[in-house]
């Protein structure tokens, strides 16, 4: 155990270090989850040779790089609690995984994010509170207990449980569902809880560190994210009583992206695919399209819908060009027959330089000239959004979140 502690405390432990990302152009580093329930982490769990998970591989090919949660956090916590066996087990696992991931570190496309906010942290608690959820996730832990003894309830009681699940879904703003099978209802409660856990963690980390980016992994997360953005209001301190809103501009499609089976590839092969001219060209198209979109969205609020359509048209052409390039290259033998849809959520707002406290009229500076907010969740969204604001303190803030799958509401 002493050896583990000495490594953790070493001054030259730099495997988790990363240089700041150059933001001369719009770049994106999607943040991948450490949550054990999440199948969208970097590696496939439970295998001797993990292999990059399919979703993570797609993100790796599309964006500037990936960020992963620092695994040293769990090791340090186990050591702090005196659980030496767990600390050693986690340490061995981390070293095995890092050895497998070494090509990604060497290629400069994998960063490690140190922030690990708890559910009680201000930003995560604010996100949950907006939906009426406490940091203990009590409503969901209650459902876990209820479903554990589901058949002990009367027929009427069981029916009420299913209706309560439906009510919670609607209260959270998610598409209505009708449950007749308790297994389906239980799974829906779990997946909803997981979406809230994942989204609150992502927003908290990406607010703390603007160099990494939110990833929306399914339609539920997109719906919850859109609700958070559209309900956040910012106070403009320069105009008495004026309020501007963060705006969910839209989910812009990147087109259908050629997909690969990460389990059939070594990490070295994944890096080779990423470096292929077809993907290099696509990422160049994406960076320029994001840069132009940011300018268009910031310039004219009334033309934002048109800006989204123009972005989609450009990226649809780029995706078609990518598909042709893959089919005509040696990568064709690795590609699957089906493509995967991907997109970016676009969020924008006018960001003021401070806020006037309505109770005493005193102007309060918040962060790096970021507008303070009326509610906790608005402060979180505003902090996340302003992380990529331009140099001018009163410039329009525009930020993007990566997304996989079909956007909510689209067939």
Features:
3-stranded parallel beta sheet, 13 helices, 411 residues, 4-stranded mixed beta sheet, globular, 46% helix, 15% strand, alpha/beta
What's the layout of helices and strands?
Blueprint: H1 2-9, E1 31-32, H2 54-62, E2 66-69, H3 72-80, H4 84-106, E3 110-113, H5 122-130, H6 138-148, H7 155-171, H8 182-208, E4 215-216, H9 219-230, E5 233-235, E6 243-245, E7 247-260, H10 267-274, H11 277-299, H12 304-327, E8 335-350, E9 355-356, E10 363-364, H13 376-386, E11 396-404
Parallel strand pairs: 1-2, 2-3, 4-11
Antiparallel strand pairs: 5-6, 7-8, 8-11, 9-10
Helix pairs in contact: 3-4, 5-8, 5-13, 6-8, 7-8, 8-9, 8-13, 11-12
Explain the overall architecture.
The protein is an alpha/beta fold and 411 residues long. It is built from 13 helices and 11 strands. It has a 4-stranded mixed beta sheet with strand order 4-11-8-7. β1 (31-32), α2 and β2 (66-69) form a beta-alpha-beta unit. α5 crosses α8 and α6 packs antiparallel against α8. 38% of the residues are buried.
């Amino acid at each position: 155990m002493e050896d583990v502690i000495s490594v953790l405390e070493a001054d030259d432990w730099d495997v988790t270090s990363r240089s700041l990302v150059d933001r001369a152009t719009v770049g994106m580093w999607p943040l991948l989850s450490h949550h054990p329930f999440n199948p969208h982490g970097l590696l496939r769990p439970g295998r001797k040779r993990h292999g990059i998970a399919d979703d993570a591989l797609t993100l790796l090919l599309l964006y500037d790089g990936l960020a992963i949660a620092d695994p040293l956090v769990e090791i340090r916590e186990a050591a702090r609690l005196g659980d030496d066996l767990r600390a050693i087990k986690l340490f061995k696992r981390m070293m095995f995984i890092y050895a497998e991931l070494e090509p990604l570190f060497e290629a400069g496309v994998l960063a490690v994010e140190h922030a690990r906010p708890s559910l009680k942290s201000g930003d995560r608690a604010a996100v949950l509170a907006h939906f009426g959820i406490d940091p203990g996730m009590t409503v969901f832990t209650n459902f876990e207990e209820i479903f554990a003894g589901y058949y002990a309830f009367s027929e009427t009681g069981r029916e009420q449980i299913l209706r309560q699940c439906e009510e919670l879904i609607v209260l959270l703003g998610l598409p209505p569902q009708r449950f007749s099978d308790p297994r389906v209802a239980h799974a829906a409660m779990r997946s909803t809880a997981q979406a809230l856990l994942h989204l609150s963690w992502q927003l908290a980390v990406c607010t703390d560190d603007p160099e990494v980016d939110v990833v929306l992994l399914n339609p539920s997360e997109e719906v919850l994210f859109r609700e958070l953005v559209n309900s956040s209001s910012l106070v403009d301190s320069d105009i008495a009583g004026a309020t501007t809103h963060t705006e969910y501009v839209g989910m812009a499609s990147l087109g259908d992206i050629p997909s690969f089976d990460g389990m059939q590839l070594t990490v070295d092969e994944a890096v080779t695919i990423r470096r292929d001219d077809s993907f290099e060209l696509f990422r160049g198209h994406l960076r320029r399209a994001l840069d132009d979109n940011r300018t268009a969205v910031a310039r004219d609020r009334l033309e934002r819908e048109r800006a989204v359509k123009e972005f989609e048209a450009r990226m649809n052409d780029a995706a078609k060009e990518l598909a042709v390039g893959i089919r005509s290259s040696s990568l064709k033998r690795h590609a699957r027959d089906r493509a995967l849809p991907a997109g970016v959520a676009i969020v924008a707002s006018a960001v003021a330089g401070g806020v006037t406290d309505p109770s005493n009229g005193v102007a309060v500076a918040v962060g790096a000239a970021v507008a303070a907010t009326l509610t906790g969740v608005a402060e979180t969204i505003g902090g996340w959004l302003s992380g990529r604001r331009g140099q001018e303190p009163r410039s329009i803030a525009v930020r993007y979140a990566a997304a996989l799958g079909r956007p909510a509401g689209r067939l």
